[in-house]
Specification:
Layout (H helix, E strand, L loop, with lengths): L1 H7 L12 H10 L5 H14 L3 H5 L3 H8 L5 H19 L7 H4 L7 H11 L9 H9 L8 H11 L5 H14 L27 H5 L7 H9 L2
Helix pairs in contact: 1-11, 2-8, 5-6, 9-11
């Protein structure tokens, strides 16, 4: 399944736009309860105005809330971003720390956010257990755990550490594009032969193919047709 996911999404990455660890950290905090697409619409103006942790710490709350409003829960997110900037300035000289234990002490940052930042901004292997990753891990029989931290550790024992970050991105891509929560595209899934939950969704190729989403759609369908 790991090899198949690699063939399916060789270039999978965090779908949030960023150019440095601070931008990615802020973007992941803003992505709660909204889509990466929506966050990517908001962050260009945000990142142009606030370039450093000190900029966020000194931000005008009303202005920041207005910029974050399209992402939803904008007051809580403004609190997190203001607190994040202040904590980085006070405790880490304005720099995003590159260790999990430090990252999770920051406002609005849990293990999921920390692993996204470590894996995609620092190149440190990490397993990102979002709703897609947890759901697919259970659907595939990799673990029966519900708690994200327990899922992270269980899958980490199955998969080589060097593959943790690309695996996370590929599973999340697969969950968004093929293995949907309510109606997975079983009949058009490259992982079908290895999946213990095959049949949860439509198994006929033509019907399942209609459910496959994303820019990789034709590549995914070709993988299934060519087998």
């Amino acid at each position: 399944m790991l090899r198949c996911l690699g063939e399916e999404f060789p270039d999978a990455r965090a779908e949030l736009d960023f150019t440095n660890p601070l931008e990615l950290l802020v973007a992941v905090v803003l992505s709660a309860q909204t889509t990466d697409v929506k966050v990517n619409e908001v962050t260009p103006a945000l990142f142009a105005k606030f370039r450093t942790a000190a900029d966020y710490a000194a931000a005008d709350r009303t202005e920041l809330e207005e910029m974050l409003r399209p992402t939803g829960f904008y007051r809580a997110k403004a609190n997190s971003v203001l607190g994040l900037g202040a904590a980085l300035v006070e405790r880490f000289d304005g720099e995003v720390p590159g260790k999990l234990n430090d990252l999770v002490t920051l406002p609005g940052v849990g293990r999921k956010t920390a692993n996204v930042v470590l894996g995609n901004a620092f190149g440190t292997p990490g397993i990102t257990v979002d709703t897609h990753f947890g759901r697919l891990s259970r659907r595939w029989g990799w673990t029966s755990e519900e708690d994200p931290v327990k899922v992270e550790h269980a899958v980490g024992e199955l998969i080589p550490r060097k593959d943790w970050t690309p695996l996370s991105n590929r599973v999340i891509f697969h969950g968004r594009r093929v293995c949907h929560s309510r109606k997975p595209a079983c009949g058009a899934c490259p992982l079908a032969k290895d999946c213990p939950s095959f049949g949860t969704g439509p198994t006929e190729f033509d019907e399942a193919a209609k459910l496959v989403k994303g820019p990789e759609r034709e590549h995914i369908l070709a993988m299934v047709r060519d087998r």
